[in-house]
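Dear all,

This email documents one entry for the complex benchmark we are building for the journal club exercise. For each entry we list the sequence lines for every component of the assembly. Then comes the predicted three-dimensional structure of the complex as a token string, followed by one or two observations. Please use this as the template for your own entries, and keep the labels exactly as they appear.
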Amino acid sequence: MQTLHVDLGERSYPIYIGSGLLGRADLLTPHIVGRQVAIVTNETVAPLYLSQLEAALQGYELTSVVLPDGEAFKNWETLQLIFDGLLGARHDRRTTVVALGGGVIGDMAGFAAACYQRGVNFIQIPTTLLSQVDSSVGGKTGINHPLGKNMVGAFYQPQAVLIDTSTLNTLPARELSAGLAEVIKYGLICDEPFLAWLEGHMQALLDLDSQALTAAIARSCAAKARVVSADERESGIRATLNLGHTFGHAIETEQGYGVWLHGEAVAAGTVMALEMSHRLGWISASERDRAVRLFLAAGLPVVPPAEMSANDFLQHMAVDKKVLDGQLRLVLLRQLGEAVVTADFAPEILNATLNADYAAQLERLVN
Amino acid sequence: MQTLHVDLGERSYPIYIGSGLLGRADLLTPHIVGRQVAIVTNETVAPLYLSQLEAALQGYELTSVVLPDGEAFKNWETLQLIFDGLLGARHDRRTTVVALGGGVIGDMAGFAAACYQRGVNFIQIPTTLLSQVDSSVGGKTGINHPLGKNMVGAFYQPQAVLIDTSTLNTLPARELSAGLAEVIKYGLICDEPFLAWLEGHMQALLDLDSQALTAAIARSCAAKARVVSADERESGIRATLNLGHTFGHAIETEQGYGVWLHGEAVAAGTVMALEMSHRLGWISASERDRAVRLFLAAGLPVVPPAEMSANDFLQHMAVDKKVLDGQLRLVLLRQLGEAVVTADFAPEILNATLNADYAAQLERLVN
């Protein structure tokens, strides 16, 4: 087991990473203050892991809330089911909410913990690669609104994050790939040597080699913890974690939540950010192609939906949370391993990026 | 104009109190960071004061969201209308949300500000006595759940509170009385000399004498600011502000939100807390009666609904936010001017309090 620390003063917390941690009561109980625990999970994860977690928490007054599975349910109606479950079982403000599932469960359970009686304790147990390396760390919680993703939420830090790599054994291959999109992202924004490591270990990761997984997750979480510690509420550097996300969110929103997986949209969105960084003269064509190849090796899409026009993108991007005083800001790469947030680009470069022929580029790359 | 300060470190803010402040752009603009402002108000307040406020804010990109009026609408569906308005007009995270209205508007607009894009700036302009002396100060925001009042919300401090006493000229008499319930509360919990002042000035307050109003509001806000500064997140002394509220919330919930005004329920609930404090031997019958007379003089109910049984009360009180690890805690009076939060009472005393004949007591008092 590896233990990392997210350093946020009085809101600091540990991240435990290893195989078989789910049943480890000794890791959970130090982070539970009262006698009530509410586990929030979904219909897919519950049959696989809920009983194991419930066993580890026996002795507590336990309520389990099982939600429908998927990004399409990351909305108020589903959130309300958590409040119904907590109030129905008379959970008080010393309750601890435990999220058992992927990013959607973590975001919703975390937001519910932030709002229930104006805030109760919260533990993250992410069970997908994407949530293990990204959403479970850093305290971003929330739900979607029909007009925009994650538009309603809170910054709310957990008491602890417990990452059991053995939960990845039951993860569909498509979701494993989606998680790798965020892993690759850390290399691109702040850890160039990690890209070479990933090029060498991509097959091991896809084969669920537990040593490779633990190494990749720990390196990703460490990168995220560094950034979050420096900028908890995203007034600056934290926004670089959103490389590819502004383009990616537009894809997700346009296609309807859940049609593209978040990581898939981030992969295609990052390819667009790479393209734009190249058109700005910041990275070379071969650096761009190196990154695109890594996404391809991870089994990820590198071409945005053919039917999406430049205008479709612009419309969704106008409500991005990085828009300030009407000005669109994008995360781009100064070089591989160095991301910047900038509004300083000519509109023609953005337009050319939105209109680029990514399918043809892919064609060239694989032939 | 009087200016008070709520001292909360980097979340400190001023409270401006005086007549005719609503049009004072010079008080508002220092607290607005971006170029977008969203005013949240309701159908009753909008025709009276919205255009005046909009005029003071001309030059900003302005969106006004007008909600239906009443506690019955303090729910997610109505909150959603705020998010719809903000997203529809593409408000970004440098938006400032301004609450123009009573406690329901302040609580909902504040919660919307806390959640919109994970938190935007917020200014309170309370237009009822109740919200001016209570809910606009201290950062409690939220909405009701069918199973309990204010069960979903956030601690979220405004950038400033602007109290224009002239808005009370259009306040219905019943709501003025409801506000006086919270004013009297401050005397009872922490300012015994204020009770004598109120006994001497009750008629002036009911007559909307602006000097008396300003004095009473400033003294109430100062009391609240002291308590909130000492305990922002209600881990201790702040709970004393809820004198009468546990009994009162039970009345509100049982009767259906909005049937009893919040201040009316607090008055009757406080009479129950006085009764219980008396039965515990902490205050005398004449001290209890002195406080009851003050509520009567303010035009407030001092008898809980005849049809509510002890069991009705207990059922609602079991989900009170002051319940910890299953133990009900109540705010009671050690003496007039000194409140305590305690779980240390015999169940029989609570039962006797719930079964006391308040109607007969009132009969004795007025004859």
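Observations: The interface with chain A takes residues 34-36, 76, 80, 83-84, 87-88, 90, 92-94, 114-119, 140, 142, 145, 147-148, 151-155, 233, 318-319, 321, 323-326 of chain B (CB under 8 Å). Chain B has 14 helices and eleven strands.
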